[in-house]
Amino acid sequence: MATADLNGFYANGVLITDSLYNSVTGTGTGHIAYDPTDSLGDSAVPDLKVVNEKRKEITDYIRLRLADGIVDVELDKEHYDLAINQALIKYRQRASNSQEESYAFLKIRPETQEYILPREIMDVRGAYRRGIGSVTGTTASQFEPFSSGYLNTYMLVAGRVGGLASYELFVDYQKQSMKMFGGYLNFTFNKTTKKLTLIRKIPFGGTNINEDQFEDCLLHVYNYKPDSMLLNDFQAFPWLQEYSYSFAKRILGEAREKFTSIAGPQGGTTLNGASLKSEAQTEMDVLEQQLKDYVDGSYPLTWIIG
Q1: CB-side exposure of 138: number of CA atoms within 13 Å?
Q2: Residues of the domain holding 96
C-alpha cells in the first residue's frame, strides 16, 4: 500500500495522521479501502518520479517558449527551479484549490496543553473529544443506552412509538451536552508556529501510561496539497506552467537589462531586457487575475452574513 515520505504525506497525497485503532481492545477505525492485490498502491498515485517529470516538462516548456536552441537563453537549472517554486508559492498564497479539508487524529497526552502540528496544516477549524455517540459499540466510550433503545424499539415500531422527531431531539441534546461538558475542545492555533493550545488540560492521576491508552482527539483541519497533487491537477497545472514561464522571463529580462546593447562590428546588438520585463509583469498580472476568476478550479467566495 502507499508508503510514507518525509514531507508529512503518504505517496498518494493523504496527510499522515495517527489512528484511532487500539491494539489492546481491537477497536477503532476500520478499512477505508481494501486492496489485497496492491493494485491501488504506489503504482497508481503521483510519486516523486512523476513530480520530477512534471517539473522537467515545465522547464522544457519555458526553454522552448524563450526560443532556446534558436537564440542563447542564459538561464541555468537553478533559475528554472526558482521559477517553478515561486509559482507554487504564489498559487498556495492566492488559490483555495491549493488546500484541502481533512480530518486528523491527535493523541492527547496527560497534563499537556500545547502541541506542535505538522507544517502542512494551514488551519484548525475544530477539535472534538471522543465521547458517547449516536451509534452503539463494544466499549464503554461508545455504548449509549438511548441509541440501543431507539434502534431496538423506535425503528421497529416507528409508526406507534417515538419516531424520527424523538431521535432528532436526542441528537440535539447530545450536541448541547458536548458544548457544556467538554466534547468540543476550546483551542487556539498559531498558523506560523503551528502550535495548537488546548484551553483545557486533561488530568491524569496514574503513572507510566502507555501511548495506546492516550485519548484520541479528532481535529477538523485544512492542509495544503503536496506538489504531486498540484502538478497533476489538470486545472492547476496550466496556471503553474504559465506563471513559471513569466517568472523565468522576468529573470532573463533582469539579466539582459544590465546592458542595453552589445558593441559589434556593424553597430552592435540591442538587448530586449526591458521588453521582457514588461511582458512578464503584464502576464503575471493577468495570471493573478485568473485566480480571482477561479479558472484553476478553486471554489468562489460564498455569502457572508454579519
Answers
A1: 5
A2: 46-131+183-292
Q: Give the three-class secondary structure for 85.
A: helix
Residue 173: in which H helix or E strand, if any? helix 164-180
Q: Does 287 fall in a domain?
A: yes
pLDDT tens digit sequence for 69-108? 898 888 999 999 999 999 999 999 999 999 989 888 888 8
Count of structural domains, the chain: 1
On whether residue 116 sits in a domain, the answer given is: yes
Assign 157 a pLDDT band (cuts: 50, 70, 90): low
Question: Across 80-139, where does the E strand assignment appear?
Answer: 99-108, 114-116, 121-129
Q: Is residue 96 part of a domain?
A: yes
**55: closest CA among 216, 231, 198, 215?**
231
| 245 burial level (CB within 10 Å; 0-12, 13-18, 19+) | buried
Nearest to 247 by CA among 103, 45, 65: 65
Whether 161 is covered by a domain: the verdict is no
